[in-house]
C-alpha cells in the first residue's frame, strides 16, 4: 500500500475536485487504495458529480479501471467528465502511474466519448468473470480504454 499524498483540492479554474474521502486497500475484495472527489463548479460547493482515482494495479483494476466518474444529469453535455479526468491525472502522475485504465459499459456512449476526448485508446470489450463483484451486480462486459498520461 502506498502512503496517501496530499491531493485534497485540485482545479482547472472551471471545476474543482474536492476530496471527500480516502479509501484504504482491501486485498480480500481486490480493492486498491483510492481517492474519492466531489466535482464542483469552481469556487462553489455545489456538487455536479463525482470522480475517483484508484492507485496501483491488481487483477481487479482491469475490470473497474483506475478512474471512475459520474456527472449529475443536469450538468451533462458540458465535458465536465473529461475535464475532471484531465485534472485528476495529477494524482496518477504523483504515484508515477503513466498509464491508467478506464472502463465503462459498452452501451454507455457518453462515457466512451469521454475516453476518446481525453485521448484514451480503446483496447477491448472484456467479459467479466462470473465471480466478479460487478458481474454479480448484473454487468457482464466492460469496454477497456488505456490512457497514456503526459505531463
UniProtKB/TrEMBL annotation:
It comes from the Bacteria. It comes from Tissierella simiarum. InterPro entries: GNAT_dom. Keywords: Acyltransferase, Transferase. Residues 30-121 form the N-acetyltransferase domain. Its EC number is 2.3.1.-. GO terms for molecular function: acyltransferase activity. This is GNAT family N-acetyltransferase. Pfam families: Acetyltransf_3.
Amino acid at each position: 500500500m502506498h502512503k496517501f499524498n496530499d491531493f485534497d483540492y485540485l482545479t482547472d479554474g472551471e471545476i474543482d475536485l474536492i476530496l471527500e474521502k480516502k479509501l484504504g486497500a482491501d486485498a480480500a475484495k481486490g480493492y486498491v487504495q483510492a481517492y474519492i472527489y466531489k466535482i464542483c463548479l469552481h469556487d462553489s460547493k455545489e456538487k455536479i458529480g463525482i470522480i475517483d482515482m484508484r492507485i496501483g494495479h491488481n487483477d481487479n483494476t482491469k475490470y473497474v479501471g483506475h478512474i471512475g466518474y459520474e456527472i449529475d444529469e443536469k450538468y451533462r453535455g458540458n465535458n465536465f467528465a473529461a475535464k475532471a479526468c484531465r485534472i485528476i491525472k495529477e494524482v496518477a502522475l504523483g504515484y508515477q502511474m503513466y498509464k491508467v485504465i478506464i472502463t465503462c459499459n459498452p452501451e454507455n456512449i457518453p462515457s466512451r466519448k469521454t475516453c476518446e476526448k481525453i485521448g484514451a485508446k480503446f483496447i477491448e470489450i472484456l467479459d467479466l468473470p462470473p465471480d466478479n463483484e460487478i458481474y454479480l451486480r448484473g454487468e457482464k462486459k466492460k469496454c477497456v480504454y488505456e490512457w497514456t498520461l503526459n505531463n
